[in-house]
Specification:
By secondary structure, this protein is an alpha+beta fold. It has one domain. The protein is about 60% helix and about 20% strand. It contains two helices and two strands; from the N terminus they run H-E-E-H. A two-stranded antiparallel ribbon has the order 1-2. The two termini are about 25 Å apart.
């Protein structure tokens, strides 16, 4: 796999985690809205090797599980951070290869 392929996969994962954070934020913001049905952001692999998100009803109506939402938020944060480290390492490798190519 090429470095650019890895960077594309990692960036799709970061976008997916950003979407997941948005869903969690919406669930928390609307938790006291009468009749609000929480949404769930389910991550899945795509045909190109990246990460996609499927947003669907969480199966519960009425109350939003704030504890579960905060757990999802922490998980998304940690996954985003890990992806950012991989992206930075890949970008550094790319820069190194480009400097070798110029010399």
């Amino acid at each position: 796999m090429s470095i650019s392929g890895v960077l594309n996969i990692v960036s799709s994962g970061m976008r997916a985690q950003t979407t997941k954070v948005g869903v969690v934020a919406g669930n928390i913001a609307n938790s006291s809205t009468p009749g609000y049905a929480a949404l769930s952001a389910n991550l899945q692999s795509t045909a190109g090797g990246g990460v996609g998100v499927m947003i669907a009803p969480a199966g519960q109506s009425g109350e939003v599980d704030i504890t579960g939402q905060m757990t999802d938020l922490i998980q998304a944060e940690q996954s985003y951070k890990a992806s950012a480290v991989v992206f930075e390492t890949g970008a550094d490798m790319w820069d190194m290869l480009m400097s070798i190519k110029r010399d």
